[in-house]
Amino acid sequence: MVIAIIQPLLLNSQVQKKLFQPIKALGHSLIEKDCRKKEDDTIIEFAKDAEVIIMANMPISEKVINALPKLKMISVAFTGVDHIPLELCHKKNITICNAQGYATRAVCELVFGLLFSVYRKISNADQALRKGETSAAYFGTELWGKTFGIIGAGSIGEEVAKIALAFGCKVLAYSQPARPELEKLGIKMTNLTTLLKESDIVSLHVPLLESTKHMLNKEKLALMKPSTVIINTARGPLIDNEALTEALLNKQIAGAGLDVFDMEPPIPPDYCLLKVQDNIVVTPHIAYGTTESFIKRGQIVFDNVIHWLKGNPINVK
Question: Quick one: which of 86, 109, 108 has its CA closest to 98?
């Protein structure tokens, strides 16, 4: 069986070879090509004999899926799968497995990295020092004692909540389905409206679905306090970013730390959020990217293939 990696896993070659060894021992072969930014026909030609594809977050089209008659399984080195035509894959009995959980720690840490960058004006202060300025304009805000609102109390949201509690925050969480068991940790479960009205920080940790697209729109942003900071390391379209831009420019809310946008980077220079300068920190979708998370991701990706080969697939979407 041919297994095709169409997007690099960003692993040391020796680590990748070691992770693939159990599959190789079963008699299967691995081919690899960086197909990002390639035409569909290039991907089709490369993967024409593959029964398994390994990829991360690059979009894959229905044309590619339809043109690979041998394809039976896709192991996604990513948590979200909204960049894959799931309905078509299910119709063609192609198994989709993701790498949920590989970047929980990495994402949690960037949440607080972004928050502290906004609260303590780290990026602006760095530039100020390089220009010979003093500290006077860059006094910040403390996290201790703030109300930290978490939208989506899954594995990442729960870990963010635990860290926020350790920093001395009151933590509110809204989750569908509800998770009342989190109350014993000191997390107060509440509805979305209450969370938005009471929180000093709002951090998003939900998947992008039709029901969650623009869940923070102009109306919802208007519920927030002028002191609120929004952190988004989940999916860009969860927020109406035109409305967010307006809210930031008008000081309707205090700031934002964003790692995701309406498209994958590179971001066009005229993108709305890039108009905001002094109360926003933006990063080019790096939350998941650490040395440790990539190794864990690689392990999950190849484990997905092994379990599928043995007839008991895991992490199926």
Answer: 86
The predicted structure's pLDDT at residue 134: 83
Structural domain for 252, as ranges: 104-282
Contact call for residues 174 and 150 (beta carbons, < 8 A) = yes
For the chain, what percentages of helix, strand and coil (3-state, to nearest 5) are there?
Answer: 40, 15, 45
Q: How many helices (H) and strands (E) does the chain have?
A: 11, 12
Contacts of 103 (CB under 8 A, 6+ apart): 79, 287, 288, 289, 290, 293, 296, 297
**Residues 200 and 95 grouped into a single domain:** no
Supply the CATH number for residue 139's domain. 3.40.50.720
Assess whether 44 and 96 both reside in one domain.
yes
- Any idea which residues carry the catalytic annotation? 235, 264, 285
Find the DSSP H helices in 146-232: 155-166, 192-198, 218-221
Question: Are the C-beta atoms of residues 266 and 244 closer than 8 Å to each other?
Answer: no
Domain total of the chain: 2
Per-residue pLDDT of 39-55, as tens digits, reads: 999 999 999 999 999 99
Q: Residue 153 phi/psi, 5° resolution?
A: -100, 50
pTM above 0.90, yes or no: no
Q: Which residue has the tokens 């192991």?
A: 75
